[in-house]
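Sample 1 of the test manifest.
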Amino acid sequence: MSNWQQKVRLKPRQRGFHLIDSELLSQLPKLHECNIGVLHLFIQHSSASLTINENADPTVRVDMESHFNKFVPENASYYRHTYEGPDDMPAHIKASTLGSSVSIPVNSGQLLLGTWQGVYLGEHRDHGGSRNIVATYVGS
Amino acid sequence: MSNWQQKVRLKPRQRGFHLIDSELLSQLPKLHECNIGVLHLFIQHSSASLTINENADPTVRVDMESHFNKFVPENASYYRHTYEGPDDMPAHIKASTLGSSVSIPVNSGQLLLGTWQGVYLGEHRDHGGSRNIVATYVGS
Amino acid sequence: MSNWQQKVRLKPRQRGFHLIDSELLSQLPKLHECNIGVLHLFIQHSSASLTINENADPTVRVDMESHFNKFVPENASYYRHTYEGPDDMPAHIKASTLGSSVSIPVNSGQLLLGTWQGVYLGEHRDHGGSRNIVATYVGS
């Protein structure tokens, strides 16, 4: 199969890190027809992020949230962009620190993630709502 | 249109975060002929970065600069790479934290950025000068 | 040359940042036959990372390690994922902060890295062992 592109709308999730492999893959059946290439996942928001991390122990996601809340604090004295609430500016900083996209190698219809890797949504707003992802496959 | 590649030279900017969508896109007219694929933007420097974030309120860029200056401090006691000045080593750390490239889905000649997303240059040196970007389109 | 994909197994390295250009490129001879595209390098582990940074002065790698050890500390009171040792949870946080992949433009068989750029492995475990990378070329 050649290049293709598809939008995926994620269900709303609470603030924190969430494993989204199942929800994503169930909506991308064309992946099974792909041979060699890269799947590019892009989140169309500046206050949420995509990253790849450990897929087994939920406490990793809890600790990620604790860490980024400490090192990207709310209510920092130097913030000027504050009118959407204390979670607003930290969400933008987390989005750039973690990134708006991940790209994953594909072979014979499968994502070549490592055994312990999964795709995380970083939901950085208190009430982010549903999030839009654009999935683009480039390859053969 | 098939794969293409083009170099873009950005005008010099002062230290901080800058929205560069207009300057970039005005130099990439071939994008309008692209159908489905990914635009990959790569900055050829280890003391500047590319990231995607909020495109409307300039205080977001100001707050990003304040945040990264605090959490990637100048003159840390443990720095050994110091001979190019206090902005040198922090610039390298910021470059890796934020990243050297962004990739953006393309459809029918348009970047599929979200409504509130834009491309930022992170200029992490006090006098970085002009910066080189390689734009590569892969897709159809 | 069209799209191709290859696994590369990196030799074990000690905790810290390591320039891996030579080891990688010596195992990717097909790169010389590529015309225009992007080389995507993906590490199949959630406690190591890939990033691009300064390729000349080894103290940059030392300072990167010092910085991330300070700002992603071991034994933080809020960590709950602790049973694999004090380097475990920080390794996951560093992996997401720095990223699991880099993508680099290619032209006429050459990586279009800047003069001062190289590919770093971030080895974030005390005893990480050898690491697997999937190299995927998309382009023409």
